[in-house]
Amino acid sequence: ETGVTQTPRHLVMGMTNKKSLKCEQHLGHNAMYWYKQSAKKPLELMFVYSLEERVENNSVPSRFSPECPNSSHLFLHLHTLQPEDSALYLCASSQELAVEPYNSPLHFGNGTRLTVT
Amino acid sequence: DQQVKQNSPSLSVQEGRISILNCDYTNSMFDYFLWYKKYPAEGPTFLISISSIKDKNEDGRFTVFLNKSAKHLSLHIVPSQPGDSAVYFCAASKPRAAGNKLTFGGGTRVLVKP
Question: Are A50 and B98 a contacting pair at CB < 8 A?
Fold first, then answer.
C-alpha cells in the first residue's frame, strides 16, 4: 500500500453530474489536505483538515465540498462544476508536531485528473 | 500576486554535471522552505527542506542554500543523474500556522541528458 492513495485516477464528468474524489492515507498522520493543480499554475491549497476538523478553506467555491470522516479518509464532493475546474486534484497528509517545524513534510497521493465537459 | 516564484520553467543539464534550481520569495514571514520533486502521473514527493535559521542543508547529492537577505533559495543536485529528470517545486511556509499552509512555486522542469 502506498502512503496516500487517491481514487479514481481519472474522472470525466459533465457539468450537471455529482461525483466524489476519495483519498486514504496509511501513514498515521493527523492532517489531510486537498490541493488543485491547474495547467501552468502553482499548486493551490483548497482545504485543510487537522484532527478531522477543517482549519483552512481558501475561499473555494461551494461546488467543492470536502468531508473528513476520520483521520485516514478524505473526500471531495463535486457538483455542478465548470470546465475551468478541470485540473489535477491532489490529496496530501502530514503530521502536526508540537515542536518546530510544527509539521512534517506533506506526503502526496498521485492525484485525480478531472475533466469537466 | 505570486509569493513564491521559480523563474526558470525548464533546465537541461548533462549527466554528471550540476543542476542548479532557483526560487525567489517575497514574503519575509516565510521561515521554512521545502523542495518537492514530481514525476509525470505521480504526486510530488518531498526532497529536502531548510529552516530560516540555517543557510545550507545537505542530503546526499542534494543541497539547498538559503539567502534570507535576498529572499532567495536554490537547490543544487550534483552529480545529476537521468533519474533526476522531473519537475521540481519549491515551497514556503510561515511560522506555526494551523494546517501547514504551504505556498508553492510554479515548478522547474529538469531534463538530465545521458
Answer: yes
